[in-house]
Structures are given as structure tokens and as C-alpha cells.
Amino acid sequence: LEEIRRSEDEPHHVLSDLIFATAFRSHPYRAPILGSHESVASLTAARLRDFYRRWYAPGNLVVVAAGDFEIDWMRAQIIEAFPASSAPAARRRRPAEPRQEELRVALQGRPFERACLDLSWPAVNLAHPDTPLLDLVAYILGGGESSRLVRRIKEEAGLCDRIDASCYTPLDPGLFGATVDLEAAQSEAAIEAVVRETERLRHEPVSEAELERARANFLASQEWEAESVSGMARKLGSFHILAGDHRHHETYRETIRTATAEDLRAAAARHLSIDRLSVAGVLPEGAEATLSEAQVRAAVARASERAARAAATPRHEVPPATPHSPAPSSSEGLQLYTLECGARVVVEPRHDVPVVAVRAALIGGQLAEVEETAGLSGFLAGMWLRGTRSRSAADFAREVENLAGDIDGFSGRNSCGLTLDATRDRFLPVLDLFTEAMLAPAFAADEIERERRDTLAALARREDRLSARAFDLFARAQFVTHPYRLALPGTPETVTRFHAETLADHHTRIMGGENLVITVAGDVDPDSAARELSRRLGELPRGSDLQAALPPEDPSPDRVQRVEEFKDRAQAHLVVGFRGLSVFDPDREALEVLVQALSGQGGRLFLELRDRQSLAYTVTAVNVEGVAPGTFAVYIATAPDKLEQAEAGILEELRRLVEERLPEPELERARRYLIGNHAIDAQRNGSRAMQLALDTRYGLGPDSHAGYPERVAAVTAEDLRRVAERVLDLGAATIASVRPAND
Question: What average pLDDT score do residues 520-529 get?
Fold first, then answer.
């Protein structure tokens, strides 16, 4: 019930339930996955046991294993764990969904800050031969920054702040849809624009450049999936269960490889007609008058007529860039380099999968901001992708996607920078774009305004994320002057003040060789990768190391502080927290083990507050480290009338950790989870490159995480009690809540 209440406070969850209830009239997909208040409240132990015995049986189970093991040994382990049952596998006859023959519209008003729309058509299931074609259509329509919806509706027309398209193909026929976040007043125009673009896909073949860009990205995603054993297992299991054969992914890939523009047009024509469209909208209360069912129907009709008239108009796209191949890989082991500009480069060759990840990390983020510039580093991270001095934003996005690469900016509490992911054969041309974006952002006035619009819209959406609001309140009370008190995305007031000179000054301040670490992990030769980076960074000034001039630490609170905010929502959100540790603290791993002992489905918070006291669906512990001491906190989302009980329960569990040693089984569970997760994360080049970049940039050293499993394994119960006593000062807790005013 708490999970249902939580979903009622999330705009996109409300929208998802609404579109499925609208698009499906008979099939079970129309029902909310979580159920309703009534259906969940009526469940009994006997019904749950019967359901479990019927469906959770060996005859209804598929086990997929991928990784480093002997097949015969693994098969024996699985057979022993799931003994054969004489009971037949449970089967249910699902009613087929009748063919939709007319436009459907569903609109709801909710107490949210922004509007969101979903335009969906009945699609196919995963086994259907049209599935890969519709996936390509969805990518071209709304799958990247150079996609049609993003370029024309978001960037050029400015009708929304977020838009994408996807094709959901489960066991039974699913949905092809586009989702839009926007101001309510723009809804009618946005609906018309989306339908116009889908109608174009039905009438006109896509360009060869668009098709090749989509094809390259889908094929590259296959390489990235193979980076981790979980990715391989997930793919094989999904195709086996949903398509009936784990080998069907080979058929899917072959269709992606050979599909033509006419194949895509024909698939769009078969599935995306306006008489099969469903439109769902969730509007802020008080804004319902901005969009009626009649307006939706009129917008769809106008779009269809205009698209038909424009069908003969030719469209031209920039052809894909020619990829280049790097030198063959040869060296092994972690390699360190220092460039003439002072930048440090760390390369870890990993030849198991033909992909490469690059991470550039700079001291920055919140640490480089003050109250008046809150959010500036995040704004700069967005502007890195909005064009360079020699390429417009649209050209830059198109060239990256032509190469099936991914370039992104990031900004956090201690650092900011850029990320690159590419296949081996396209690594160098993507690296050209990466370094160009990093060193020569354009800061064009029109792109600054687009980024400002998107950021302000994201801030408005954040008002509907009450967990984020609670953590913002907590941070502002926990820190008095330190930048960690600032909201990561900034505020409407600060974002409104950012302009080209502000951004250029901030870029110059942080972008120096002494402040920069670049890491490369993947299928490369280390010496060759370092030479390529040295050539591209030859004109980067040395600058200064910002870590040498960090803001002073705030003293920890010495008394209990309470802060609260009122929102008319179904749930209350509570954060109880304390000053934490820095990344340099020798108790760092002990605190991580403590957090894990509290968290997860086997953790103390879950077992006591959720299972035994039924106080919450979501309860967890959060540890935020930094180059300065960060925070440790417990978060819970609960019913408003249970808020006091939830707070008391949290404080009691924390008191127990201070006064009592953790039993060995709980300690071992936490240690094993952290060590296992560390190994899983290390499979992906991107995760490995980011860890190397941050550890090196913060001064821990590139090999810092090599000893992580041993340090975690060495944590004792007394270590946990000691660090709990050090961090969990219950007489100086900061308690932040967001709850309904009438509670």
C-alpha cells in the first residue's frame, strides 16, 4: 500500500498507468502492476500461498547462468536447487486485446508542477518479425539528441523540455509510444507535432544517414551488453522467455543489420495509423482547461492532414562520418602518463570486448560553486554537448550518433567532467569530438537559452520528487556555509543569471591540465591512447589544481535540528542524518559496511520498519562521501499518520548500532554484498574508467580500489560499533521532512 501511495506522487507512474488503462481494454496489461488500494488490501495469507505454489514452481521457471564456471557443475547446482516437480507448469489463458479502430483520449488533473503526455500505438511482441524494425523507427523518432522529436519539437520549436520514443515489446503485443514533459499550455501544439512526425514516418522512407545511425547504435549496444555477465544473462533470458528461444537475439540482430528504409516505412505504416492512437495526459490541477479531449482530437486531425500534404517534400540529412581504426592493442596492465599540460592519463587495456570508455574528471561540481552560482557546474556539463566553436549543437549530436558513440557531461558534489563510450573501430573519431567539446565549447546564446529552459523545467519537475526535496532540506540544515549545502541543479534564481561570460569564466577556471585526469579502459593500446590524447590536448593550459584551494569544512552540528516543508501529497518523506566521512578517512569501508547492514531486503531497516512494523515501502540508508566529510542518512517514505512512529523506529535502530555489536551473520552478509558488487561493477569499462578517474583526481591513487575487497573483508563488528559511535550522534541528528500540511 505504501508503494501504491508513493506511485501516486510520481507523475510518470501516474501517466504509465493511465496510458496502459487507455490502450488496453481486455488484456491484463491494462491493470496497474502494483494493483489498487482495494485489491492489495483484500489479499489474504491463504491467497498469497496459493498464488505462490501455482506460479513459483520449477515447471514455470527459467534459470539463466553466464560467467566463469564449468557447465556440468552449474547444471548440477541448478538441478539440486530446483528439484523436479510432478505438478504441471501453471498456464493462464490471457484474453486477446481486440483491434483498436479509433483514437482514444484520457486526461487527468493531478497536484503536480508540470504536464506530461504519452502518445502510444498498439505494437507487437518480442518474437514478431517487425520488432527490430519498430525499434529502429523508435530510435530515429526519439532515441537520441539528433532524433526527429528532440531536434524538431524540443530544440527547434521549443514545445517541451523532454521527449523520447520507445517500443515496448513484451510476451504479448505491447506499445510503441512517445512521452513528453512540458508546460501544460504547450500540450495541444506538442501533440500535433508528435503526430505529424509519426505520420511522416508512415509516408516517407527515412534517410540513409538516419538508418545507418540507428543501425550502428543498435549494433554497438550489443557489444556493450557483452561487457558484463549480467547483461549476457539478461539478454538470453529475455529472449528465451518472451520470444520462446534464447537464440532469437541472433535473428533480431540480423534484421537490424539488413533492414532498409522501405522496411521501416512499411512497418510504421502497418502499426502507427492515427485511428489506433491512444493519447494520455497528466496535467497540473487548475490547468485542465488548457487541454480538452476535443483539442486532442483536433490536433491529431490537423497533424495527419499536414503530414499527408508534406509527404512529397524531400528531406536531406548529413551523411555519416567515416570511422577510423586505432592501432592494434598490445600492452597490458595499468599504465600512467603525465602530459606536457600537466594532465594525468591512466590507461587500463581490457581486450575481452571491442569497446572503449574514457572519463575526464576535474575537481569542480559543488566545490567550485557558491550560493549565487549554485548549479553552474551542472549547467556547464549540459553546455559541453550544445555545440563547439566549429560545430553546431545539431551537427555535434548527429556526428556522435553517426559513430554509434556516446558523449555526456557530468557534475556532482566534488567533480565534473565528460564521459565517452565507443566501439573500438570508431574510438578515434569519437575521441576527436570528445576533446573538441571539452576544450572548445561554443556557449552560443541560443543554446544557453535552450539549456536554461531545460534546467528550469527539470527544477520544476524536481518539485514533484519529494524525496529530493527532503534531502535538499537536510543538506541546507546540515551545512551552514560549505557548498555541500547547495542543491546540485541550482535554483531558478541562480540558473536565470547564467550567461556566456559566466560559463566561459567557469570553464577557464576548472579546465587546466593540473586539474584534469583522463582515464581510458577498454580495447586499446595504452601508449597509442596516451599519444592520441597528448596530440589533442597540446594547447590546454596548465591552470591550477582546485583541490589545493578547497572551501573550509563546516563544524558538525552539536544539537538536534528539525526542518520541514509541506506538500499536498499521499506520502510523507523523512530524512534522519548526520555528518559523515571523507573519501580519505580510514573508517570509510567500515561505514560502507554499516550502511549495507542497514539497507537492502535483508537489512535491519527493511526487516524492522517495513516487514515487522509495516511503516514503509521504501526505507534505506545513504552514505554520501566527498573530499570533505559528507553525510550519512536514513530515508523513509511512509503514510503521514505514521511519521512519528517511523522516526522513532529509525532512531531506535541507530541506537542499537551504537550500543551493540552487529551479529556475525549480518556483518558477513554486508561484507559479501559489497565485495560482490565491487566485482560486478568492475566488469564494465565505463564503471572502471570512472573509478580510476575519481580515485586519481581526488588523490587516492589509481590503484586505490585494488585493495577494496581486502579492506572490506577485514572490517569487524567492533569496527562497526566504533564507527557508529563516531558518526551516529543521536543528540545532534538533523531531521528533515516533507509532508501534507493537514497531517
Answer: 96
607: which DSSP letter? I
* Whole-number pLDDT of residue 326: 30
163 in the same domain as 61? yes
Mean pLDDT of 375-401: 96
What per-residue confidence (pLDDT) applies to 705?
Answer: 85
Please tell me the distance from the alpha carbon of residue 735 to that of residue 564, in angstroms, as a whole number. 8
* Domain end (from 525, 549, 573): 549
Confidence category of residue 87, pLDDT binned at 50, 70, 90: low
Sequence-separated (6 or more) residues with CB below 8 Å from residue 215: 136, 256, 257, 259
Distance between CA atoms of residues 639 and 615, nearest Å:
7
Mean predicted confidence (pLDDT) in 644-662: 96
Query: For residue range 238-273, what is the model confidence (pLDDT) as tens digits?
Result: 999 999 999 999 999 999 999 999 999 999 999 999
> For residue 366, which of 484, 509, 511, 507 has the smallest C-alpha distance?
484
Judgement on whether residues 615 and 538 belong to the same structural domain of the protein: no
Mean per-residue pLDDT over the chain, rounded: 92
Contact 191, 299 (CB under 8 A): yes
Taking residue 555's Cβ as centre, other Cβ atoms within 10 Å add up to 10
Q: What span, in angstroms and rounded, lies between the C-alpha atoms of 1 and 637?
A: 12
- CATH code for position 626: 3.30.830.10
Instruction: Look at residue 327 and tell me if it is in a domain.
Output: no
- Asked whether the beta carbons of 369 and 484 are under 8 A apart, the reply is no
For residue 601, give the C-alpha cell: 531486503
Reference 690, options 516, 437, 521; nearest CA is 521
pLDDT one-digit tens code per residue, 604-615:
998 999 888 988
Eight-state DSSP code of residue 156: I
Domain stop point among 499, 519, 549: 549
Beta bridge partners of 708: none
- Count CA atoms within 13 Å of residue 387 on its CB side: 17
Beta bridge partners of 416: 362, 411
Maximum C-alpha span of the chain: 77
